Amino acid sequence: MKIKIFLYTIILLTLNLSCSDSKVKEKVAEVSTIGSGDDKITVVVVSGTPYEMGYQLGSALKEEVKAAMTNFLKFAKMGEPERYNNKNLDNAWKSVSPYIKDRFKEELKGLSEGSGVPLIELKRAHMVPVIGNYACSGVDVWGKATTNGHLYQIRNLDFTMRGELQNYPTIVIYKPDKGIAHASPAFAGYIAAHTGINAKGIVLSEKGASPGKEYPFNLDGTHFSTLFRDILYDANNLNEAVDMIKSTKLIKRYHLYVGDGKPETMGAVKILVSSPDSVKLTIWKDNDPTDEVAPKVKENVCYYTMKNEKAYNFLSENYGKFDHEKMIELSKLVADDDGNLEDVVYDATSLEMWIAYAKDLEIAGSRPYIHIDLKKYLK
Question: What are the 10-residue block averages of pLDDT along the chain, 379 residues in total?
C-alpha cells in the first residue's frame, strides 16, 4: 500500500512539473523593432517570473544571443588572454555570485535554456565587464536647467567596439510578476544592466574609473551591473535607490548617476564608488561646493564625463534650455572618439528614451539617436 501511494505521489509530481514546464514554454516574448536600416534596434517585451523572462528572451533571440555572447567572449580571450581566460572569468563569478540575487541567477538559467547557450558561457560573458576597466560619461539636468522641468539623463557607454556587441542592439522591457517594470538597453544575451529606467521614473547611468594598474581587482562584493537590475526592480524613488547603494558591498571604482523624474521627488545624485580606499562612497547632489568638478558646478546639474571642460561649457551656454535635443548634442560632444559603443538619452519624467549604437567602428555618437516612447511598455 505504501509503495502504491509513493508511486502515485511521484506520478503526480511528474505531471505537475510537466504542466508547469509546458506553461513556461507557452509564454512568448513580444518582439518588435524601432529605427530602420543600419539603425534598427530590437525591442523584446518579457513577463512573468525571472526564469520565464530569461527563457522568453533566449527563445526569441536564440541566434542573436549565441552570436553576441560567443563573439564577445572570443574577442576578450583573444585580445587579452591572461586576463580573460576561463579560470579568471570563473573565479570572478565565484567571487561575486554570493552577492547576486537568486532572481538574476534564475533569469540567466532561463536565458541559457531558452537560447541553448551553455550557462557557463553566459556567466563568463557577464564577467568580462566585471574584471575589465572602461571609461564612459554621465550627466543629469532637471528643473531650472531644462525648458520643461523634466529630468534628463545621459549614459554614454565608452567601451570597445571590436567585440561586435553593437551588431546585436537590444532593448529588453521587463514586466516581472514581482517588482517594478523596467527597460534595459543593451545587447542580445546581456541581462545585467549598464543603464536603465523603470516605470517609477528611476534612471541609472555609470562611468567606469578603475585604472588598469589596479588589476587584479578585489571582487568580494557586488558589481554595479547586477545592482542596477536590483534598483530597477525595487526602487520607487531617489531615496530608495540611494539607500540600496549605501547598503550594498560594492567593488572597484566607478561613478553612479541616479535620477528620479517624478515631479514630487525629482532630483539626481552622482556617487563615487572607490572600494579600494578608506572612504568607499561619496555622494554629491547638484551645486555642491565639495563636488570633484567644483567650482564648475551648477544648480540642478550633476556631471562627470570624458570631456569635462567641454561638458561644463555646453552646460553653461545652454542652461535653462535643455530638452532631449540639447542632451543628444551634449552626448555627442562628450563621446569618446576611440571607443563609444552605445549612447542613451533619457527623459525620466515622460518615460522616453533616445538611443544610438555604434556601427562597425563608427562611434555611437556619430549615429542617429532612435526614439522610443516607453510609456506604452512600462505603464
Answer: 48 45 74 97 98 98 98 96 97 98 98 98 98 92 98 97 97 98 98 98 96 94 98 98 98 97 98 97 96 97 97 98 98 96 98 98 98 95
What is the model's pTM? 0.93
- Is the peptide bond preceding residue 295 cis, with omega within 30 degrees of 0? yes
Report the alpha-carbon distance of residue 61 to residue 31 in Å, rounded.
Answer: 9
Q: How many CA atoms within 13 Å lie on the side-chain side of 31?
A: 17
Asked, for residue 249, whether it belongs to a domain, the answer is yes
| Residue bearing cell 568580494 | 220
- What's the CA gap between 44 and 4, in Å, rounded? 47
Residue 73 lies in a domain: yes
- What whole-number distance in Å separates Cα of residue 140 and Cα of residue 122? 32
Residue 141: name the closest of 328, 335, 364, 355 by CA.
Answer: 328
Q: What domain count does the chain have?
A: 1
